[in-house]
Design a protein that fits this description.
Shape: elongated
Helix content: 25-40%
Order of helices and strands: EEHEEEHEEHEEEH
Number of domains: 2
Distance between the termini: 5 Å
CATH superfamily of the largest domain: Heterotetrameric sarcosine oxidase
CATH class of the largest domain: Alpha Beta
CATH topology of the largest domain: Alpha-Beta Plaits
Strand order of the largest sheet: 1-7-10-9-8
Number of strands: 10
Length: 169
């Protein structure tokens, strides 16, 4: 058996945070509330229960435990005020956790980007297509990657990765 664990993650809170208006002020307020810096483009931060990922310009995705959803949304609405918006995307993405020493090898099967690049390191976010499916990859740590894809694609992507993992043997 290969050195890989591939699992669908439990349901969780995913909140999109968009900012506009007084960007510097709203960014400082968000960072103070979350106690996490807003990641730069193509970057992520956080550990444990909260992960904050750059998603697109002036937009981040916050992952947190499911029971934190309403409290976080209420706090974010107050912090954002007229300078942004929060949107619950908890049902919009399924997270697949890839773990093990051959994670990069697995991602190279059917990938359209270089998963072996040293620039694809912990704290990086990459958007790509794998096996014809849209995927965002968050490198949480060396040998630990969270893949986000629409729920309707998750089982198919996991199936392809399991076949790839068997090939890597």
């Amino acid at each position: 058996m290969t050195d890989l664990a591939l699992n669908l993650a439990e349901a969780e809170t995913l909140i999109q945070i968009e900012t506009w208006g007084d960007i510097a002020s709203v960014s400082a307020r968000i960072e103070a509330m979350l106690k996490l810096p807003l990641p730069a483009p193509c970057r992520s931060t956080g550990d444990g229960d909260h992960r904050l990922m750059w998603w697109e310009p002036q937009t981040w995705l916050l992952r947190a435990p499911g029971e934190a959803r309403q409290g976080l949304r209420t706090q974010l609405q107050a912090v954002l005020g007229e300078d942004g918006a929060e949107t619950d995307l908890s049902g919009a993405f399924q997270r697949i956790r890839l773990e093990g020493g051959k994670v990069r090898d697995l991602l190279m099967i059917g990938a359209v980007f270089d998963a072996e690049s040293s620039a694809f390191a912990p704290g990086c976010i990459a958007g790509t297509v794998l096996h014809h499916l849209p995927v965002r990859l968050d490198v949480v740590a060396e040998g630990l990657i969270d893949a986000y894809t629409p729920p309707s694609y998750a089982e198919a992507l996991l199936h392809h990765w399991r076949i790839g993992a068997a090939r890597l043997g």
